[in-house]
Amino acid sequence: MKEMYFNRLTILSKTAKKAAQFDFSKSYNLILSKQKNSVGKSSLVKNIFWCFGCEPQFDDSWKSLDCRVILDFDVKGKPYQIARHGNRFILKSPEGKHKVFTATGGDFSVEIMALFEFDALLAVRDKDEVVTPPPAYYFLPFYIDQKQSWANAWSSFNNLAQFSSWKKTIIPYHTGMIGKDYFDKTKEICSKKVEMAETTKEIDRFDTAISVVSEFSANSGIVIDEVELDEIEEEISIDIMDLHFQQEILFEELANLRAEKAHIESQIVIARQSFEGAVADYEFAECLDEDIECPTCGVVHDNSIVNRFSLFQDRNQAKEIIERFQSDLVRLENDILTKDSAFKSLREKINQLDEKYSSDQYSNQSLTSVLDAISSKSVRKKVEANRSLKIESLHNLHKEEKLLVKERTAGSKNSRELVKKAFQEYFPRYLSKLKTFGVNTNSIKSPENHTKVAESGGAAESTRAMLAYYISVYNLIYKYGNHVLSPLVIDTPNQHEQAEKHYESIVSFLIDELPEHSQLFVCGMDSNKLERLKAKGKAIYLEVEHSLLKSDEFEKIDFEYSGLFELEDSGV
Asked: Measuring CA to CA, which residue among 145, 184, 231 is closest to residue 466?
């Protein structure tokens, strides 16, 4: 298995002129206090994940420190360093080169996820597009936070709602039910959906063009079927036919221009609605506090000026789209006027020939009316033929998409069954080891059934059940996952004051059931029940309330690391 180890965490606050540095064991790490809570145990481990762009829940007093955080870590035996200050990230490669990023998404996500060999992709809201998600989605099963994870698995970090239904993809990928092939197929499916959307738009344009032609044809007062059209075109003399062809070309161009104009006008309406929505969202966000608690799930979302700026960008982007469409509309209107002028000039020539030629069959109609009917009928034939081709193309794209979905499902069938079978072996056995007998395993057959775990048993028992679930998932990742195995961080396993015999079984369980060579972090109050872990690893004691950082370490650490945050991107 490909493993990662956290080696050293450095935290520096220039605001408070305090700092701290912690070195870790590659086996067990206990973050402990003997008598007091609120000494920074949770803040210490949260900063490990914060370095990678995750958003654990910090209180206001910690946020006010404006910390710079540096983590030294290994991936597959190679040393890396990552540093964060605000939304600025610096990644140091094993070769000693630095790469600077200014946001958690985009290039940063691609870089970090590639380092972890994490191939999962998530669908962008309201788009037929998949992207590499931020690192938080990688770290979710590796961090059991003190407040949310014990009651609701896969919820250790804030700001996860940017992707809808992400658990349906992330949980199967982490546990090895689906792999890279699944996402390769997903990208192909998205590509087909984009093609289908574009083809549908073209069909809509053809429909508009047919409507314009039909209206013009109806105004001529002449109805010509396919046979009559062929006969008339053969009978009309060469000089008139030349004008007819010119008129037909102009007529077709006008029809297409008017159809395109109608399409752009409809797009302007949509873009204006988007702009008005973005403006309303931005104005609403301006009136709220910097922290917003979701009334549905209780997650606290960041409403800082940085995050509100994304709404401002959405508004500007919508405005730019409207301006571009309006520019296109002006161009089209000018093109229509030009073509219409040429069309009228041609019609004048036809009118001059009206007296020279007549039709016995249509003696009560002018030559102009006959040519109008012929032109509109001919143009309609062409448009309908093109529309038929697009309809056929759309049908084929639907068939190809369904085939890809079928292949994607079939490709992961065996791995899904294998992983579920392994989970059904791990989870009940772990429940038994933790003496959690009130959990009904009949309804928990897969790692995807995580919501049912916390609902079982009493408070203390449900905590042990959740621990059994997390360790089951961790072992599934170790055995079937294709990505790097992260250290496991647990804050704290002694939730709801476990009885001494249960706490002892928890410690034994962690020692016995974690994969070999995995790194473990445990936060909690000191206890003689932890002696076995202490003997095999390292204990870090924190005793000063609300003071994880220390003044006497500031100058040394500031001298060593301040220059790191002044670096410019030098490439990796």
From this structure: 145
Q: Give the HSE-up count for residue 160: Cα atoms under 13 Å, Cβ half-sphere.
A: 22
Residue the block writes with tokens 């709220």: 288
- Both tokens of 187, joined, read 């990208």
**Distance separating alpha carbons of residues 301 and 293, to the nearest angstrom:** 6
Instruction: Please write the tens of the pLDDT for every residue from 537-570.
Output: 999 999 877 779 999 999 999 999 988 988 766 4
- For helices 238-286 and 180-220, give the axis angle rounded to 10 degrees: 130
Q: What is the dihedral of CA 101, 103, 106, 108, to 10 degrees?
A: 40
Closest CA to 178 of 169, 186, 187, 189: 169
Measured between alpha carbons, how far is residue 380 from residues 69, 229, 365, 407 in Å?
68, 12, 21, 40
Question: What is the sign, positive or negative, of the torsion defined by CA atoms of 169, 174, 179, 183?
Answer: positive
pTM recorded for the entire structure: 0.74
Q: Amino acid identity of 32?
A: L
Question: For residue 474, what are the CA distances in angstroms to 405, 464, 501?
Answer: 29, 15, 24
- CA angle, corner 20, sides to 19 and 23, nearest 5? 155
- Residues 457/181, Cβ–Cβ less than 8 Å: no
Name the nearest CA neighbour of 505 among 523, 484, 530: 530
Residues 157/56, Cβ–Cβ less than 8 Å: yes
Residues 6+ apart with CB under 8 A from 15: 64, 65, 66
Instruction: Note the residue count of the chain.
Output: 572
180 or 457, higher pLDDT: 180
Find the Cα–Cα–Cα–Cα dihedral 267, 270, 271, 272, rounded to 10°: 120
Burial of 440: CB neighbours in 10 Å, binned 0-12, 13-18, 19+: exposed
141/105 Cα distance (integer angstroms)? 20
CA Rg value for the chain: 34
SS3 493: coil
Residues 477, 394: contact at Cβ < 8 Å?
Answer: no
Other CB atoms within a 10 A radius of the CB of residue 377 amount to 22
Are the beta carbons of 366 and 236 closer than 8 angstroms? no
Per the CB < 8 A criterion, the answer to whether 27 and 522 are in contact is no
Burial (CB < 10 A; 0-12, 13-18, 19+), residue 473, is buried
> The tokens 């509309």 sit on which residue?
329
Check residue 66 and report its DSSP letter.
-
Cis link prior to 492 (omega < 30° from 0)?
Answer: yes
Q: What is the H or E stretch that residue 161 is in? A: none
Q: What is the pLDDT of residues 375-427, one digit of tens each?
A: 677 777 788 888 899 999 999 999 999 999 999 999 999 999 999 999 999 99
d(CA 342, CA 459) in angstroms, rounded, equals 82
SS3 assignment, position 434: coil
